[in-house]
Amino acid sequence: MLFNSLDFAIFFPVIFVLYWLVTSNLTLRNILILAASYVFYGWWDWRFLFLIAISTLVDFYVGKQIYNTENATKRKQLLFVSLFVNLGFLVYFKYTNFFIETFVDSFRLFGRELEVSTLNIILPVGISFYTFQTLSYTIDIYRKQLKPTNDLLAFGAFVSFFPQLVAGPIERASHLLPQFYKTYKFNYKLVKSGLLLMAFGLFKKMVIADRAALYVNEVYNNVDDYGGVGYLYATVLFAFQIYCDFSAYSDIAIGLGRTMGFDLMKNFDSPYISKSLTEFWRRWHISLSTWFRDYLYIPLGGSKKGKYRTYANIFIVFVVSGFWHGAAMTFIIWGAIHGVILMIEKGSFKIRKRVFKKLGLQKNNFSNHLFFSLIIFTIVCFAWVFFRANSLNDSYQIIHGLFNDINLGEIFKKETYLVGFKPNEFRVVSIAILLLFIFEHFHRKLNVVKMLNNEATIFRWSCYLTIVLSIVVFGIYGDRNIQEFIYFQF
């Protein structure tokens, strides 16, 4: 079920009313959440509900056994069971065909053709997200950082919690699971805040991301028909598309949880104003970045085993991150690019500090901030080419066009920037992106929402209605079809 669908527009009010009718009874409330979550996920394909159910049961019982066992060998064996089941599902559904294709291609390099066909496997929506969420539970118990729950119902609701089930934020049991043991009283301000965040998320998704997708899809799906300027526009627009699409899902999930009294972690923090790639990854997909930090980077040794081992650990984490995003070499290269730049940043820190000091670039003023932000944005966009391209050949062609085929005379031609767009759609996307940056800039410093609450009622509600009307006019009626969230495929 999509947040931006008519189905969800009916589903949410029904669940919202039922939830607040039964919320004083913890058992009934958690039954409702579990049932609603399974309906929400099963609306896409009910057959894959068994994956969530098996992961839930395995990790619930394995977690209890690990906690009650002092024998180190047995604890490792039990942890292996959890890893094998969860990662086994993930590897089979997401990576089987990739391994088959890689195996065949490796023989082709030596002039041998293998008659091996890929399997007809459907990738379950959001499997990477809920797999990581439930895995963190058993790993934390194994590390003796968390006590297991005895409440299977609450644990099942935690694993399948529908607001963030299929695209995050990836929650830790230590933060989210205890919230299923609490009763909540209806709080008008909290519900209103959640609804506003959901509306803001829908605005980013339907007005910006889905509009930008029209141009991006046209160019990236037909690379032979376009040149360097088209690639440039499409790549920059994709940067905003994926940010607005993914952060929109997180906003809606957090807002939806908030209307029910739940607190979900912040997942994005204005990443495109980052002055370094290290800062970018502290602001982008925070729940995944911290997951890889805690469950891969630190276990590999982190930064405690010498600088060369640190560089290797950074590179490994980002290559794995790329592979997590998709079973294709383009995603692995995307991760490797980020890994290499981060290694360079870390290795050249002292040199850069001295050079920047001499050039006067260390001052925390607007011009310096803008300068470094534009550099990081350019690097991120370069890597996005591999993330979005349909194949390695397409990505190489786009990169070649960006460096060798930029005709400045084409930049302001309508036939260049209106590809896939109607004139009004181009204006809407441009204005909406500008307003988004202005809002995020001021919101970080002044908290625009609190300021808005202090304004006159007519002004405040005019702002709310403007957002809603924009979603209706440019999102619902302006769209050619309902666009899935990009991260559903991961």
What does this 3D model show about the protein?
The protein is globular. It folds into three domains: 181 residues, no CATH class; 184 residues, no CATH class; 95 residues, no CATH class. The chain is built from 20 helices and no strands.
- Give the helix tally: 20
Strand content: under 5%
Low-confidence stretches: none
Into how many domains do the coordinates divide?
A: 3
**How many strands?**
0
Rg estimate, integer Å? 24 Å
User: What would the principal axes of the Cα set say about the shape?
Assistant: globular
Mean pLDDT: 85
Helix content: over 70%
Q: H/E order of the elements?
A: HHHHHHHHHHHHHHHHHHHH
Descriptive tags:
transmembrane helix, mainly alpha, 490 residues, MBOAT_fam, cell membrane, 20 helices
Helix and strand arrangement:
Elements (H helix, E strand, L loop, with lengths): L5 H17 L3 H20 L3 H19 L4 H37 L18 H16 L9 H9 L12 H4 L11 H33 L7 H32 L17 H7 L2 H12 L9 H19 L3 H19 L1 H11 L6 H23 L3 H13 L9 H4 L5 H24 L1 H6 L3 H20 L14
Helix pairs in contact: 1-2, 2-6, 3-4, 3-5, 3-6, 4-5, 8-9, 8-18, 8-20, 9-15, 9-16, 11-12, 12-13, 13-15, 15-16
Summary, kept brief:
This is MBOAT family O-acyltransferase. This protein is an all-alpha fold and 490 residues long.
